[in-house]
Amino acid sequence: MTKVIGTIVCSFLSATVLVLLGCGGGGAGNAPALASAGGESAATRLVSGDQGGYCCSGDAAQAGTGGCGEAETEADAGHCMVNVSDSESAVAEESGGKKEEGADAPQPAPAPAAPSDAAPEKATINKAAPAFTLTDHTGKAHTLADYKGKTVVLEWINYDCPIVRKHYDGGNMQALQKKYTEKGVVWLCVNSSAKGKQGYFEGDKLKERIEKEKGSQTAYLLDTKGAVGRAYGAKATPHMYVITAEGVLVYMGAIDSIPSGKKEDIAKATNYVDAALTAVLAGKPVEKQVTEAYGCAVKY
User: Is the domain of 84 the same as that of 177?
Assistant: First the structure.
């Protein structure tokens, strides 16, 4: 009898775990927040937009009625999950699973990564921003150190994300770029989409797309391997960062306070980037330094 009861309990728990691991679909019941091994959320937030699909960012998981367009599918967004590998490792360790044969045998040390692939330090508010070197769409290399003495904005970008489209089609992003580059601010758009993923462009097609958007950015940088995006913790497009002339990161998060895909919400929202830059250029502290970015998941 004890054995039968134990079997039923184990079966129930296994089914519960399988249900909890689902993220996506069309309703909030299909997108629960999962805790990673470190205690942080293993799912990102789904934000409603004007089109079908998903917009992914944040720490809680909830299904939206719309989102990041048809191209922003569950498969492409990775079910909007982060730290999935950490969660799976924790489940394996806690399950007391059987060791593979030869698991205790000495294993050869992994080969060290090449210096060019070394990940920069992680971004931390009120600390020095992670150094990087990236190439722009014309082939010119840019380093953060090149702009020492100037305020720098980093804008994570994916022209095909509907939330990015909200801010570009409404002229909001271009106006912000123009306003501050005319004041001497360096504005760097960073694209971390991997080759073959949504938002990745190259060659003449990329040049044509940049010209079509009529932005006033200082440069459009390619982070195809995603090392810089991961160092800065960029999760969404757009994800915004403001760095002082001294190289200190003083703002990271959303462009504004209304996480939607509606252009009419732009005028109603508090623009966090505008507020941060106004404070920095006036020599004042940034009042709101960290917010939750919203938009489509960065396509690493």
Answer: no
